[in-house]
Each structure stands twice: as structure tokens, then as C-alpha cells.
Amino acid sequence: MTNTPSLDEIHRLDREHVVHPWHAMDAWRGYDNMLVDTADGIYLYDGTGRKFIDGPGGMWCVQIGYGRQEMADAIAVQAMKLPYASPFTNATEPAAILAQKLVDFAPNDLNNVFFTTGGSTAVDTALRAMHFMNNNLGRKNKKIILAREKGYHGSTYLAASVTGKERDVSQFDTARDLVHFLPDVNPYHRPDGMSVDQWCDAKVADLQSAIDTHGADKIGAFIAEPILCSGGVIIPPEGYHKRTFDICRANDILYISDEVVTGFGRLGHWFASYDEFGIEPDMITCAKGLTSGYMPLGACIISDSVMERMTSDDPVLFSNGYTYSAHPVSCAAALKNIEIMERENLLDHVKTVTPHFQKRLQDLRKYPIVGDVRGMGLLGCIEGRLSKDGSRLSDERQIGQMLDDACEEMGLLVRPLINMCVFSPPLTITIDEINLMFDILEKAVDQVGQQMI
Ligand code: PLP
């Protein structure tokens, strides 16, 4: 029998051997990520008896909350029945039934599901499908992808290439010639004196001008998150999605809606593209909440119309895919996740608690260090603001981390992003738990404000 290692020992092993995503390379040897040991409901436990509300819901993904015995059972049953089957040569019951569910949730003629291993590979699949389609149609030059500054689409080469968070890709090579970035759409960053409507006009004009510059015959797709989540929960101005969608349609540019975060109930819908924003994309990418993070899985849902244009008279292969595409255990987890969400009416629950969540978020505006708060559904962001004399607070870039530290002391985890912090708790969160979470946030904002004066 082996001895269970102590918490200190685990930390040491982690520090010495685990390379974490987004390590700061000047300090990675000293990294000390919080060790989490167990979890239940909306709470994480660190193994020393300390309990934390999981503000980020894992990484925007734990919709049904932690500690679901029936999920563990569903995973175990599938692992015993059929743990793996090659998606290249086999079909399985969980994948087939899940695909049917997803196309039922998706709008319009999005009837075809390509399963992936997560969000990045779903985005890669969508972009490669566009390239494949245009090669198939003999439009070899219609390949440029329009993406947006502050957008995040993943960490594979192609998904990172369309990611517009400069800091995340500055030290990497990306496929720069393939991508054109549209400028920041955040209404909070609009010039003084400009109305939100005028901002919307300007942002729509940015898209039109990119098309005018490159030519519609060179542009294959526009990829957009309905809300730019990792960029700081940026909500484009009202009407932006529909207007940009219409321009793409008019110019035969595929519209790819990246719903890796906004899908599966985060905004109170299975998918937000149509139900919230009135658009019917050519492809929707999803992951995260699809399994509530219990197993890795993603999907690229493709319209009939795109599939028809990918269809060939020759036996050309759509040679895109992964050993773990449509993994039976992941698909079984997704089916159980959907069953739980349906049985517990989680979409309605999100719609019911959202007004209170968003009101408590808006209440934070009264604190001097808060420049902007924004959110939708169970998504929220606090952005640090200019100091009173108009100059940036010297340690403004640290506000996210300072808030995170203060919250952690009081039993809440948030996700710091430079001068912002974001949160997206499990969708099961109750009104009492929302109050608990915002009571802590309020104290933390106040406390950090005192430190910065
Ligand atoms: N797309 C969006 C909108 C995301 O937020 C993310 C991850 O945060 C991804 C894609 C990449 O997903 P994954 O980390 O599962 O590869």
C-alpha cells in the first residue's frame, strides 16, 4: 500500500513537474496554484478544511455543480460498457443520441455534429471546414478569417491565430496572413461623447471596411463569440450581432458563432446565437458546459448548407479528426448533463436568478475603483477604473489579482484578468448563494479600494 502524499508534498511535485497553462515564464518555478482536493455543489475544498465558492465555475464550465453521484454513475457505466470506440470506423449509441440532442437545440439547418476534444479543436474544425468548403468550390483564395481584438478562441495553432488577445499570442508564431482582426467592440472603451448607437454603427462599419479592403472573394469566415468572455465579458452593443450577421450573409462569408462559453445555459438558453441574438450561424462551436466539465468534449455543429458545399463527386476525405472525437464516455457524460439540466429546469432557473445576479453586480458601480461592471445571464466582470484625477491608478493592472486575493481570504474564488476579474458560477447557484458571493465581492472591492487610496 502506498502512503498518501501530504499536501506539501503534492505542492512540491506540482511545482517541480507540472507545466500549467498560462504560466508567467519569469516566475513559473515559484508558481503555487491553489491545491483543490474535493468539491460539492458550488464549493471547492482545498484539503485543509477551507471552503470556497467557485466563482469561475471551473473555467466557465461546471453548469450542474460538483458532486453529482448520478453523473459519476453514468460515466462508470459507460466506461464498463464501452470505454472507447474509434470514431474513424465506428458509431456508438451515446454519440448518436447526443448529436440528435445538439441539432435539436441548435437553430436553423445546423443538423450535423463533428465531435472534438474541447473548444480549441471545435474552432479548428470550423475553420478547416471553411477552407475545405472553399477548396471544394474552387474558391482557393476565399480563406481569410475575420476575428476580433479581445476575442479568445483557443490554444491550438489555428484557434490561437484567430485569438485577438495580443498578450496571449505575442511570443508565439501564428497564421497572421490568414486573419484580419476587427478593433475592440467594448462599448465601455468608446470615445467620450459617442453614444452606444454610434459605437454600434462604427463597429459594424469596421466589418464592412475589412470586407472592402480585402474583398469578399478573399474572406471565408467571420468568427465571433456572442460575448467575448475571456476578453473580459465584453458585450457588443445591441443590434451588432444581427447587423454583422446580415453583412456576412450578403457577402457569402460564413458566420461561425463560438458558443464555447455562452452555450449550455450560461445565458439561459442551450445556445444564445438565435435565442438571445436572433442570428442563425453557419456553424456553432461548443464545449465546456456540454459536459459541465466532468469529461472533456467539444463539438462543431455544421449547417446542411455548408455540408452540401463540402460534398464532392470525388472520394476526397475530410481528413480532420481526433482519436478522442465522440469519446463514448464523454458523450455519456454530456447526455447525463443534459438530462440533469432538463429535469431541474436549469435554463429557467438561470432566467429566474439572472436579474438578481446582475443587480448585485451593478450595485458595485458605487465603489470608486470600479470603472465598469458588465454581465449577462450568469456571467459577470468587474473592470478597474481611472483614478479621480483622470490618470490611471499606478497599480490598476493589479486590481484583478488584488480582488482575487481579497476574495480568496473570505472564501470566494474569482478569475483575475489584469485590471478585471470575471466570474461564471455553476448554474445551480441559489439566490442565497448569489448574495453570499456578492457580499464577499463587495467587501473585497471596498477593501482593495482602501488599499489603493
Ligand atoms: N472558445 C472560447 C470562446 C473559449 O472561451 C475557449 C476557452 O476558454 C475556447 C474556445 C477553447 O476551449 P478549450 O480550452 O476547451 O480548448
UniProtKB/TrEMBL annotation:
SUPFAM superfamilies: PLP-dependent transferases. Its cofactor is pyridoxal 5'-phosphate. The keyword Transferase applies. It comes from Paramylibacter ulvae. Pfam families: Aminotran_3. The keyword Transferase applies. Belongs to the class-III pyridoxal-phosphate-dependent aminotransferase family. InterPro entries: Aminotrans_3, Aminotrans_3_PPA_site, PyrdxlP-dep_Trfase, PyrdxlP-dep_Trfase_major, PyrdxlP-dep_Trfase_small. Keywords: Aminotransferase, Pyridoxal phosphate, Transferase. This is Aspartate aminotransferase family protein. It comes from the Bacteria. One of its GO terms (molecular function) is transaminase activity.
